[in-house]
Amino acid sequence: MTDSKAYIVVDVGGTYLKSAVMNSEGEVLRGSSCMAEAHSEGSQAEVIDALTNSIVNEYGFIKENNYDISGIGLTFPGPFDYFQGVPLMEHKFKSLYKINLEERLRNIPEVGNYIPISFRHDANSMLAGELWRGNADGYPNSAVVTLGTGLGFAFSINGVVQCNPIGGPLITIFRIPYKDGILEDYTSKRGFLRLYKEYSKMEDIEGIEVSDIGK
Questions:
Q1: CA–CA–CA angle 155, 159, 164 (5° rounding)
Q2: Looking at residue 123, what is its pLDDT?
Q3: Do residue 38 and residue 92 come from a single domain?
Q4: How many domains does the chain have?
Q5: Is there a single domain that holds both residue 98 and residue 191?
Q6: Model confidence over 171-203: pLDDT tens digits?
């Protein structure tokens, strides 16, 4: 590692918050990775508390290992005004709708008013990482599809991730009509679980995750 700068990164999914500490070279520092429930269907206080705990936990790792915190990056599904830090989702994280999330996070004593905070769409973030240090390095015109609680898509032209006016992906695919619904109904967590229930003939799949299906 060439310097002591460290960055808190949090992937905010509909099911889990996945956080870690990264250095300036894009390497995740060993022992910093954590995962916690996102509480995306919970109250505003529950969601903010979950985010706070993830950030404070990673801040503790930074201080314990004598690094200097240089920024916080959070990836969120959309719709979301990524430049203003304002969630616009009505299908999940509904309790955060139109609140200024950056202001709320700056109320965390460990964050305060001076640590840079940036928000980015999760699919855009994945593609940016692949262009920088991953499989898309050297391929300036690339695309990614992300599968999880939802269905995401991002693409780049000449190495630049293409965004809409509020920082989200320029093109979305989750609403594309497919069979008796939309594409996300079949290629997201709920879609996989619904199809598994149909094919397995199980009456109750409570507690089963997509990862369990592949075992």
A1: 45
A2: 94
A3: yes
A4: 2
A5: no
A6: 999 999 999 999 998 888 888 888 888 888 887
Q: Are residues 84 and 101 in the same domain?
A: yes
Q: Domain range spanning residue 75?
A: 5-120
- Helix or strand holding residue 12 (H, E): strand 5-12
Per-residue model confidence as pLDDT tens digits over 17-68 = 999 999 999 999 999 999 999 998 999 999 999 999 999 999 999 999 999 9
Q: Are residues 68 and 172 in the same domain?
A: no
- Find the CATH number of the domain harbouring 106: 3.30.420.40
Same structural domain, 90 and 162: no
Closest to 125 measured CA to CA, from 161, 177, 71: 161
- Statement: the pTM of the whole predicted model exceeds 0.90: no
Cα-based torsion angle of the residue sequence 192, 198, 202, 203 in order, rounded to the nearest 10 degrees:
100
Residue 145: in which H helix or E strand, if any? strand 143-147
Q: Do you find a cis peptide bond into 79, omega within 30 degrees of 0? A: yes
What pLDDT does residue 1 have? 45
Averaged pLDDT score across all residues of the chain: 92
**Would strands 68-76 and 117-121 be described as parallel, antiparallel, or unpaired?**
parallel
